[in-house]
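During the reporting period the student researcher (J.K.) took over the structure-prediction task from the postdoctoral fellow and processed the backlog of single-chain submissions. One of the processed entries is reproduced below for the supervisory committee.
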Amino acid sequence: MTELQDLLVAAIKTFVVESPLNRLKDIDGSPMWQEPLVAFADGDDPLFALYKTVVGPFHLSPREAMSIVRSDSVPHVSIVSWILPAAEETKRSNREMTEGPSLRWNHSRFQGEEFNDCVRRYVVGLLEEKGYLAIAPVISPQFRTVGLANGPASTWSERHIAYAAGLGTFSLSDGLITAKGIAHRCGSAVFNAPCEPTPRPYTSHTEYCLHTKDGSCGDCIDRCPAGAISLAGHDKLKCSAYMNAALASWVKRPGYIGAYVACGLCQTGVPCESAIP
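J.K. obtained the following structure tokens:
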């Protein structure tokens, strides 16, 4: 890796592990996320053109993202992508749930993503201090969610970015299975410096999923209280309907936060919870 890449890996890991913001402040003050995985992708990787079809024509390419901060073309565009693995106690607590998320999972979903935004801003700020142009597309004004016939999609999919960076492959439930499992949050930033792309140690976008590999698993199907996961995959509309309707009363339960409580049951109590199975 380049010197800049080494710096980014060390800085991101240190920030996540040491930041007082990475805490379940309203529960017990313990960390929400474990030490992150960090990897890199070339902004001109052909995969990003493919995402215009796989995700939608609205999905930004890295160069389109970079154009938000600089209108003229730059020689190099790279991406740093990270995975924030959920704390062991958070996974354990959610593993015990059958209808909706544990309190720890609920807080990690909302306060945890607020912290992920802090990581995004930190990485952009660090790159700018070093004299580079940088942007975290998810917290840019151009980021939006697009309603499609099969459910919502976004103009910058952190999971697809992580896949391009060699961090994991997709599951039957649409999650990304990484070396630290499927219970996590993803983040990324785009910058104008050359980097050595992290090799993708897989040839298929579903290679780490046991169901796709040999049909030996389908545990996420049984874990889903909405019936939104089947052998055909993940039904985003049924998933959203369950969280917004069946779990609507959960937002009034003591301690729960957010406009909806999230769920995440398919990410715990499964073989890919904490590792590549």
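The committee noted the following: The chain has one domain: 3-267.
J.K. will present the remaining backlog at the next meeting.
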